């Protein structure tokens, strides 16, 4: 499969806004209170918030193309942009989303491999992420790809306090 990872820039804001909202809605809208979900998506995934994140040098978004068609994206956080750990030896894989038509094709694994390459090139020793404790499919995917649980943290969708597992993958285990 022909796949390309492209770092996002400010000029990609409209596409990032679209794919962020579409993939998040498909993944989580049905499991959440409509008001809480609307509040979350209209703040965390607003054009203003995404533009701020795009302009932060410690946040990096990457588009994933399959045969020149946008199929997904992922986001890496470094330094103070990390949501919890703030470890200079780590990169946070905060978002990893693939459009439904491109799921189950191995793209998620390719994203993890690319994130590991980026982390290794930056001299990091591990990558970590947060995954909703009720998202069993994602948890299994991450475990199958070598991630291990090392903690928990709260994650809010509007006023709804949910719990994420914190999972990490040491580069030395590869």
TrEMBL record:
Coiled coil: none annotated. One of its GO terms (molecular function) is acyltransferase activity, transferring groups other than amino-acyl groups. Signal peptide: none annotated. It comes from the Bacteria. It holds the Pfam family Acetyltransf_1. Residues 3-172 form the N-acetyltransferase domain. Keywords: Acyltransferase, Transferase. PANTHER family: ACETYLTRANSFERASE, N-ACETYLTRANSFERASE DOMAIN-CONTAINING PROTEIN. This is GNAT family N-acetyltransferase.
């Amino acid at each position: 499969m022909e796949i390309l990872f492209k770092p996002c820039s400010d000029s990609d804001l409209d596409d990032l806004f679209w794919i962020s909202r579409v993939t998040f809605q498909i993944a989580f809208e049905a499991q959440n209170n409509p008001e809480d979900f609307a509040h979350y998506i209209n703040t965390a995934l607003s054009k203003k918030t995404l533009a701020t994140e795009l302009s932060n040098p410690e946040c990096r978004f990457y588009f994933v193309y399959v045969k020149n068609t946008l199929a997904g994206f992922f986001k890496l956080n470094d330094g103070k942009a990390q949501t919890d750990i703030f470890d200079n030896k780590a990169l946070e894989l905060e978002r990893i989303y693939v459009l439904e038509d491109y799921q189950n094709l191995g793209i998620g694994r390719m994203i993890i491999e690319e994130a590991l390459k980026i982390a290794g090139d930056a001299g990091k020793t591990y990558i970590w992420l947060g995954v909703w404790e009720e998202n069993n499919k994602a948890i299994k995917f991450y475990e199958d790809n070598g991630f291990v649980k090392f903690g928990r943290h709260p994650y809010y969708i509007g006023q709804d306090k949910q719990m994420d597992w914190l999972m990490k993958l040491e580069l030395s285990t590869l």
